[in-house]
Amino acid sequence: MDWVNEKVEQLLAWVRNLSFRKAMIAYILLLSVVVFGMSYITMSLCWHWETMIWTGVDATENLGEVIADNGMSWFRNYDFLMNSDGLALRTLDTFRVWCPFIYAFVGMIVTICIFYQKRLRRPLFILQDSMEKIRRNDLDFQIRYESKDEMGQLCNSFEEMRRELLLGKEEMWKLIERQKELNAAFAHDLRTPLTVLKGYTDFLARYIPEGKVSQEKMLDTLALMSDHLRRLEEYSYTMKGVRSLEEVPFAPEQMGLKSLRRRISEVVFALNQIGDVLIQYTGDEGESKEESEERLYWIDDNLVMEVLENVLSNAIRYARTRIEVSSDYHVEVGDLVLTIRDDGAGFSGEQLQKALKPYYKEYKGEASDEHFGIGLHIRRELCKKHGGTLNIANSIRGGAVVTASFFLSQESRDS
């Protein structure tokens, strides 16, 4: 029986996979066979029934005068057709003649209904339901129809279209997320340089009226402010043509560690002019010999300063009274490590796990319009561009510690 069932399944699958043209031909041939068989049986039964009626009729009394002509019998008196036997004969004769046409007409209707039920109803329902889901922007489904006929091919085409729409939708969401991330990064990066400029402005406004700022110091401060404004202008121009964080350019230039540390000192000085938090910066004294030789490295100082300024901005928000900044160059691995420690509450357990992820906010109600929850994530990506990374931890003395590393090469990455 298993063999028979298998053969039956194979036959049904073969029939199900027939093209519409072949299926219609098969249905019509089957209809013709059925109509022919039923017509033959009906005509035989009617003829047999008529013969039985004729046999029971008394020709001398009921049939009238019979005229024999070439073996055919003709009746001049048709009054007997008005009784029950005559009506039966007339009905049987009529049905015997017209039964093939009746069967063919009814058979076509039944065949069309069966064809629709077997070959069209389910795939049309699948396609209609799929279109309704697509119209509702619901692409989380799959179109399945086992047949390989034209409707099966159409369902497969709809499934491919659904997959393409889903991929397009996912790509669009990724693009929106990248743009959102980029906009947040742009807004976040502008805040700290503006804070630095504000620090320089407060310094000049506080000490110039008291005559405590020499002309040389004032000119140096104005030069620093001009340098920050130039950097902001260049950054704005660069971000205008960038579509995602991955496209943020990495543009290293040759410079010495002393020059980079001088820039760090300038930022720390400016930020010390605002707020009540004291920021202390210490460089790596162990590299004084290297610095005296003014060895040059390929450094994207703008990228390093963006990371530093952002981390410092976060530290100022959470520190109580003090922030420590240090820069160390590890000769054996070629990494410059910036470490920022504050004396605040430190990172919570959840923050240690999630603070480097995009759009994380532990306190969603606090400063929601100013804090995007994306700063540390972006800084880590920028560190990766410079061959380093960014890590967070809690100090054993209390407070948070953020460590950013940058690989400094003496050879250009383009070489």
Give the overall silhouette: rod-shaped
Low-confidence stretches: 58-78, 289-293, 363-372
CATH class of the largest domain: Alpha Beta
Structural class: alpha+beta
Biggest sheet details: 5 strands, mixed
* Rg computed from alpha carbons, rounded to a whole number of angstroms: 46 Å
CATH superfamily of the largest domain: Histidine kinase-like ATPase, C-terminal domain
Q: Could you say what the CATH architecture of the largest domain is?
A: 2-Layer Sandwich
Give the helices and strands as they follow along the chain. HHHEEHHHEHEHEHEEHHEE
Number of helices: 11
Helix % is 55-70%
* Total domain units: 2
Number of strands: 9
Reading side by side through the largest sheet, how are the strands ordered? 4-6-7-9-8
Name the average pLDDT: 77
- Strand residue percentage: 5-15%
Question: Could you describe the 3D structure shown?
Answer:
α5 packs across α7. The chain is rod-shaped. About 9% of the residues have low confidence. It has 415 residues and is of the alpha+beta class. The protein has 2 domains: 123 residues, no CATH class; 237 residues, Heat Shock Protein 90. The chain starts with a helix and ends in an 8-residue tail after the last strand. It has a 5-stranded mixed beta sheet with strand order 4-6-7-9-8.
